[in-house]
Amino acid sequence: MQGMKTLIISQPEVKALLPMGECMDVMAQTLKALSSGNATLPLRTILWLPERVGAMGSMPAYVGGINVMGLKVISVFPGNHGTEFDSHIGAVLLYETAHGQLVAIVDATAITAIRTAAVSGVATRALAREDAGDLTIMGAGTQAATHLVAMLEARDIRRVRVWSRSMDHARAFAERESQRHAIEIEPLDNARLAVAGADLICTTTSSPDPILQGAWLAPGVHINAVGSSVPSARELDTAAVAAAALFVDRKESTLNEAGDFLLAKADGAIGDEHIRGELGDVLLGTLAGRGSDDEITLFKSLGLAVEDVAAAHHVYLKAQERSVGVPVELGGLRDES
C-alpha cells in the first residue's frame, strides 16, 4: 500500500502563496477562533544555547474550524542580522486530525515574517485612528520590511521614517524599500526624533533594552510591539506601557512571556488588569478597542503557534491547487512486514 505524500513547501513558494492582504484575513479569523475558545495552544518551549547566542523554539497548536494541528520549530539567532541568514529559520509541520498524518512541511522563515506583520496589520486596522498615516518603524531587518507592507495594507500611509541602532542598516532599508514600494522613507539615527509626531509605530528589533520611551509618544499613537518574545527583554520602557491601553494576542502568553508587560509590572507601574484584553475579542465585537482619538493604544504581539499553523494550512491548500511544492513519501503506515 502506498503511503500518503507529505508536501515540502519552500521559502520562495511560501512568499508567493501568502500575500499580506490574504494573510491578514486568515490571521483575523484565527485570532477570533482563539479568543472564542476554538483552538488549543500550549505555551511555547525554548531551548537556549550556552551563552544565549541562539535558541530553538517549539510551538504546537490545534486550530478548530479548519481541523488541523501543527508544530513550528524554529531557531532564533539575532546575530544573523547583517549576514545572508535570517534570524528565524525553521519549519512548520502540518498535520490533519483524522489520522494524524503529516501533510506538509512548510518553510517557517517566510511564515514567521509574513504572519507576524499580518497580525500587526489586523491590530492596526482594529485599534489605530482611522486617519493614522505617519509611520515610524524601529528596526531595519526582516520584520521591519514585512511590517511596512502590512502598514501600507492597513492604512493610507503618508510618511515613513525608519530608525535602527545601526544607521547603515537604516539607510540601506530606506533605499531598498523606498524603491520597492515607490514611497519616500527617511532614515534617522535618533530614536526620539524618529517617533516625534508619529501616529503609527512598529518596534521590530532584537533589543533586550527599551528603545521607545513613553515621554516621546504623541497623543493618539498606535504601537505594534513585536520584537521581544521572552520575559527578560523589552522594547518599550515602563512609562510607555503604563501610558497605553494594552491589547495582546493572548493573555496567558502575555502573563508568562511578554517582557514589555512583565518588566513594567515588576517596576510596580501596572498590574495584570492593565491588559484590556485580546485582539480576537476586539475583532469579535465583545471588547471595545480605541476609546478616543487621543488614547495611546499598544498591541503587544508575542507570535502564536495558531498563527503559524493557520498560515501554513492556507499555504498548503493553495500549493495543492497550483501543484506547487515537492511531494515526498515519508511514511506513516503501519509496518506489518
Question: What would the keywords be for this entry?
Answer:
11 helices; alpha/beta; globular; 337 residues; 8-stranded mixed sheet
Question: Can you walk through the features of this model?
Answer:
The chain has 337 residues and is of the alpha/beta class. It has 11 helices and 16 strands. The strands form 2 sheets. Strands 1, 2, 3, 4, 5, 6, 7 and 16 form an 8-stranded mixed beta sheet that branches. The relative contact order is 0.19. The model has no long low-confidence stretch (mean pLDDT 93).
Question: What is the topology?
Answer:
Elements: E1 6-9, H1 11-17, H2 20-35, E2 39-40, E3 45-48, E4 55-63, E5 68-76, E6 88-96, E7 102-107, H3 108-127, E8 134-138, H4 142-154, E9 159-163, H5 167-181, E10 185-188, H6 191-195, E11 200-203, E12 222-225, H7 238-243, E13 245-248, H8 251-257, H9 259-266, E14 275-278, H10 279-284, E15 297-300, H11 305-322, E16 326-328
Parallel strand pairs: 1-7, 8-9, 8-11, 9-10, 11-12, 12-15, 13-14, 13-15
Antiparallel strand pairs: 1-16, 2-4, 3-4, 4-5, 5-6, 6-7
Helix pairs in contact: 1-3, 2-3, 2-11, 3-4, 3-11
